[in-house]
Specification:
Number of helices: 5
Number of domains: 1
Radius of gyration: 16 Å
CATH superfamily: q2cbj1_9rhob like domain
Largest sheet: 6 strands, antiparallel
CATH topology: Jelly Rolls
Bound molecules: fe (ii) ion
Strand order of the largest sheet: 1-8-5-10-3-2
Distance between the termini: 33 Å
Helix content: 25-40%
Length: 208
């Protein structure tokens, strides 16, 4: 299954929707087109990353945003706002209409220890998140954990490594998630996005 190249059979979509409902998330191995993954990896060459980490030293998290990588963010957001992709996401999650997919990227390596403690991503305008791995090699650590925010019961864990896989996970008042530190030699690259109920065009400077 590729992010934009092909449509998805309605019968497959229906099965995936069942899986999302029963599991509470969807993990799709080999989701992202390798050609596109290679294309996006070029933005994160070792030289670029050294500068980038230096510029963001001391921050709690390292996010590739419009300010640092405008070309990347424009291309990536164009891709994830394609109509067929949005329709696919609405169908598999059973969400309401998506106003906009809002994407940026995370880079994590063992030196930077950029894990994320439990938080909910919940600003009241998000249905779910999509986390796509574009790391060319297997990486260690960086495990995604979802738990019930009231009971703290762990609901599921996903280690999205080893393929260009996608994790689709809900955002809700009773849910929170964490991502553990990346621990090995391989730097992890992930394309994050949120399904927004209402577009927030004013937050995206490139749309002004
Ligand atoms: Fe998050």
């Amino acid at each position: 299954m590729s992010i934009v190249k092909y449509g998805v059979e309605p019968s497959v979509t229906a099965l995936l929707h069942q899986e999302y409902k029963s599991q509470g998330y969807l993990y799709l191995k080999n989701f992202f087109d390798p050609f596109l993954a290679e294309h996006f990896q070029k933005y994160f060459s070792p030289e670029n990353l050294a500068d980038f980490f230096k510029a963001q030293a001391g921050r709690d998290y390292v996010a590739i945003e419009y300010k640092s990588h405008p070309d990347f963010i424009k291309e990536y957001n164009y891709l994830i706002n394609q109509k067929n992709y949005i329709e696919f996401l609405e169908a598999v999650t059973g969400s309401g209409p998506i106003g906009q997919m809002k994407g940026h990227a995370y880079v994590s390596d063992a030196n930077e220890k950029r894990g994320y403690g439990f938080h909910d991503d919940n600003d009241g305008n998000r249905y779910f998140l999509v986390s796509i791995n574009i790391t060319p090699q297997k990486y260690d650590g960086g495990v995604f954990t979802m738990r019930n925010s009231k009971t703290r019961e762990v609901l599921f864990q996903v280690h999205n490594s080893g393929s260009y896989g996608a994790l689709i996970a809900p955002i809700a008042d009773n849910l929170e998630h964490a991502v553990s530190d990346v621990t090995g030699d391989v730097t992890r690259f992930s394309l994050l996005s949120w399904a927004m109920k209402l577009p927030q065009a004013r937050r995206f400077k490139m749309f002004d």
